[in-house]
């Protein structure tokens, strides 16, 4: 059983966090944790583009009707999952390049970011699943006053941390 099974599922998820393999979870967990911090209901699952292509298409085609509003998709190597999902859903897809043993994640990054015109994937930095989660929150917050207020608090917190670092250097 994957580590995340049983803990990452909530009722009525609005974000789908999917990945090509459970070996991606140590990276993708960052997205899940960010969503939890903001109280955003999400689901997590393995949907491999190459090992379960029909499931992948079904996931993408059914996502909006099931109530999802954003998909975060992570994969490593020949990372086709985010782009293929974007091709079959009208929802925004955020791609997370997962770094593997070789090539430092550059293969994953280029596989995800080089999408053809008309089929965008919002690609975050290699391994930056937390930012993917935060971007999903921002997308949802555009139409949710409470969530936008939470994001503003979060940003003020970031500001405070950065200022404190400067203050420590000046001591
Ligand atoms: C990709 O292959 C997955 O997203 C993962 O990053 C990589 C390796 O998968 P495993 O061989 O560990 O299952 O499709």
TrEMBL record:
Catalyzes the conversion of N5-carboxyaminoimidazole ribonucleotide (N5-CAIR) to 4-carboxy-5-aminoimidazole ribonucleotide (CAIR). It holds the Pfam family AIRC. PANTHER family: PHOSPHORIBOSYLAMINOIMIDAZOLE CARBOXYLASE, PHOSPHORIBOSYLAMINOIMIDAZOLE CARBOXYLASE CATALYTIC SUBUNIT. It comes from Actinomadura coerulea. GO terms for biological process: 'de novo' IMP biosynthetic process. InterPro entries: PurE_ClassI, PurE_dom, PurE_prokaryotes. Pathway: Purine metabolism; IMP biosynthesis via de novo pathway; 5-amino-1-(5-phospho-D-ribosyl)imidazole-4-carboxylate from 5-amino-1-(5-phospho-D-ribosyl)imidazole (N5-CAIR route): step 2/2. Keywords: Isomerase, Purine biosynthesis. The keyword Isomerase applies. Substrate binds at residues 21, 24, 51. SMART domains: AIRC. Its EC number is 5.4.99.18. It catalyses: 5-carboxyamino-1-(5-phospho-D-ribosyl)imidazole + H(+) = 5-amino-1-(5-phospho-D-ribosyl)imidazole-4-carboxylate. Belongs to the AIR carboxylase family. Class I subfamily. It is an enzyme of class 5 (isomerase). Residues 13-162 form the PurE domain. This is N5-carboxyaminoimidazole ribonucleotide mutase. Coiled coil: none annotated. One of its GO terms (molecular function) is 5-(carboxyamino)imidazole ribonucleotide mutase activity.
């Amino acid at each position: 059983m994957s580590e995340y099974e049983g803990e990452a599922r909530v009722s009525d998820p609005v974000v789908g966090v999917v990945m090509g393999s459970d070996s991606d979870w140590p990276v993708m967990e960052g997205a899940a944790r960010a969503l939890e911090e903001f109280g955003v209901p999400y689901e997590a699952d393995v949907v491999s583009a190459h090992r379960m292509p029909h499931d992948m298409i079904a996931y993408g085609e059914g996502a909006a009707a099931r109530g999802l509003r954003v998909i975060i998709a992570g994969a490593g190597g020949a990372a086709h999952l985010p782009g293929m999902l974007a091709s079959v859903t009208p929802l925004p897809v955020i791609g997370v390049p997962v770094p593997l043993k070789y090539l430092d994640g550059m293969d994953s990054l280029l596989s995800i970011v080089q999408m053809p015109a008309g089929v965008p994937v919002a690609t975050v930095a290699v391994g930056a699943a937390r930012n993917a989660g935060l971007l999903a929150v921002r997308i949802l917050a555009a139409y949710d006053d409470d969530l936008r207020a939470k994001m503003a608090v979060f940003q003020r917190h970031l500001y405070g941390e950065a200022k404190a670092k400067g203050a420590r250097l000046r001591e």
